[in-house]
Amino acid sequence: MVGDSIGTKLVSLGHKVMMGSRTASNEKAAAWTNRNGSLASNGTFADAASFGEIIFNCTSGHVSLEALQLAGRENLQGKILVDVANPLDFSRGMPPSLSICNTDSLGETIQRQFTDVKVVKALNTLNCQLMVSPGLLKDPGNIFICGNETDAKAEVESLLRTLGWEKIIDLGDITAARGTEQVLPIWVRLMGKLGTPMFNFSIVS
Ligand SMILES: NC(=O)c1ccc[n+]([C@@H]2O[C@H](COP(=O)([O-])OP(=O)(O)OC[C@H]3O[C@@H](n4cnc5c(N)ncnc54)[C@H](OP(=O)(O)O)[C@@H]3O)[C@@H](O)[C@H]2O)c1
The pTM is what? Predict the structure, then answer.
């Protein structure tokens, strides 16, 4: 869902996008390519990582490291990786818990295991329709980014602005992913209470 939403929006903005999957013949990825015209393509995770200048990790959090291994260290080296994933653990049913939290995060784990990659955690705190269309809300609210590389964050921030985001808070280094991933439990509760995923956090001071 997230890969589809972000990929579709980026294609609509004129970017070439390759959707990666475990197999080059993944049916959902092929259908996405067919829907999105000549700027869209699909292949393996390794194909996509090699193709992209900026990589989006839109895999389930519990398999993200596995997917990035398949993408290939050599294909990711030196690139920006926008980590949208959350380490949600559904093994005990709903609501999910976090498989990594408090003193660590998925974003940091990825950064530790892929030291040559510039991990920027972003967009993981809201629904994928809103990620790419903040204007669907009367007040879009805030999004958060964090990561160790200032230049990488600046590049991601300017890309996010092209998606329509204005209120972007840079929380600092990648350890701030602990905070942005740990809003998920309250996000899930709010979705249950409000009966819709179409809401966002807005910071006031
Ligand atoms: N949905 C949202 O609005 C939303 C919002 C914020 C953050 N997120 C986060 O974004 C990520 C994607 O969410 P989603 O809703 O798009 O989930 P999704 O539709 O279930 O997509 C998950 C992706 O992970 C892949 N995958 C599953 N098992 C895998 C494995 N063993 N190895 C490699 N890849 C595997 C799936 O590939 P196949 O299709 O080939 O199985 C699929 O492409 C999650 O971490 C989620 O927490 C989601």
Answer: 0.98
